């Protein structure tokens, strides 16, 4: 499950609260194994216009050169991490991967 950095069912922010609620609902299904990825800002090119997101991506793209795992992650890295979680044995019934772990796994 791709969620979001800061996901929390008790958040005051609707986006983060909904992401946290979805995480809980997916875990409640009772899968044998579940991996939740919580990436930071996704660096990608979009077809639709999102000016604020575009500005954030430009800024975070520069910041990523100094702090590559802190505030953003390329979508390709998230995709590779997702594939890696399927191919590698899990570390428990539910595994939550934050942005730094997504970067590390996405390099493998």
Estimated structural class:
alpha/beta
CATH topology: Rossmann fold
Tell me, what is the CATH class?
Answer: Alpha Beta
What is the radius of gyration computed over CA atoms, rounded to a whole number of angstroms?
15 Å
**Beta-strand residue percentage:** 5-15%
Low-confidence stretches: none
Q: Calculate the terminal CA-CA distance, rounded to whole Å.
A: 19 Å
Shape: globular
CATH superfamily assignment?
Answer: NAD(P)-binding Rossmann-like Domain
Mean pLDDT: 89
- Counted beta strands: 4
Q: How many independent structural domains?
A: 1
Order of helices and strands: HEEHEHEH
Largest sheet: 2 strands, parallel
Strand order, biggest sheet?
A: 1-4
Q: Could you say what the CATH architecture is? A: 3-Layer(aba) Sandwich
Portion in helices: 40-55%
Total helical elements:
4
Protein name: HTAI2 Oxidoreductase
InterPro entries: NAD(P)-bd_dom_sf
What tags apply to this protein structure?
globular, 4 helices, alpha/beta
3D architecture notes:
- 50% of the residues lie in helices and 15% in strands.
- By secondary structure, the protein is an alpha/beta fold.
- The chain has one domain (14-107): Rossmann fold (3-Layer(aba) Sandwich).
- Helix 2 (51-66) links the parallel strand 2 (41-43) and strand 3.
- Helix 3 crosses helix 4.
- It starts with 13 loop residues before the first helix and ends with a helix.
What would you say about this model in short?
This protein is of the alpha/beta class and 108 residues long. The protein contains 4 helices and 4 strands.
């Amino acid at each position: 499950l791709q969620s979001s950095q800061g996901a929390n069912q008790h958040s005051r922010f609707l986006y983060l609260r909904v992401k946290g609620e979805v995480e809980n609902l997916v875990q409640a299904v009772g899968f044998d194994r579940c991996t939740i990825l919580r990436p930071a800002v996704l660096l990608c090119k979009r077809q639709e216009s999102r000016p604020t997101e575009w500005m954030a991506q430009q800024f975070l793209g520069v910041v990523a050169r100094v702090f590559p795992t802190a505030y953003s992650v390329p979508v390709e890295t998230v995709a590779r991490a997702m594939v890696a979680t399927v191919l590698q044995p899990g570390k428990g019934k539910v595994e939550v991967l934050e942005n730094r772990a997504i970067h590390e796994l996405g390099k493998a």
